[in-house]
UniProtKB/TrEMBL annotation:
Domain of life: Bacteria
Principal cellular location given in the protein's record: membrane
This protein's name: Diacylglycerol kinase family protein
Presence of the UniProt keyword Nucleus in the record: no
Lipid biosynthesis as UniProt keyword: yes
One Pfam entry name: DAGK_prokar
A GO molecular function held by the record: kinase activity
Family: Belongs to the bacterial diacylglycerol kinase family.
Record organism: Flavobacterium myungsuense
Amino acid sequence: MEFQKDNSFFTGRFKSMGFALKGAIKLVTTEHSVMVQTFIGILMVFAGFYFHISHEEWLVQTLAIGLVLGIEGLNTAVEKVADFIHPEFHEKIGFIKDIAAGAVFFAAMTAIAVGLIIYVPKFL
C-alpha cells in the first residue's frame, strides 16, 4: 500500500492526533517502565490537589511529568528500532540504547528534584 499524504490541514491534523493518541495508548499499555512512571505521575497529580500547590508549582510539576513520559517514549522508540535493526546483542547498539536510557535518567532526576522542591516544604 502506497502512502498518500493528506493535503487538507484539518483532516491531516486530526489524523496525526489519532496516530499520536494510538501511540500514547500503546506506550502506556505495553511498556512497564511507562506504566510505573504514569502511575507516579498520577500520584503526583493527586498530591498536588491534596497539598493545594500553587499555579506555578502545577506548571513545573506538569512539565516534569511530561518531560519524563516524553523522553521515555523516545527511549522506547530508540530501543524498538535498534532491536528491529539488530536483534542480537551488538556493542554499538548497546551503546546507543544506553545513551537513550541516560536521557531518561536525566529527565527522571529533574522530575525528582522538582518534586522535592515542591513537596519537602509541605512536610516541614
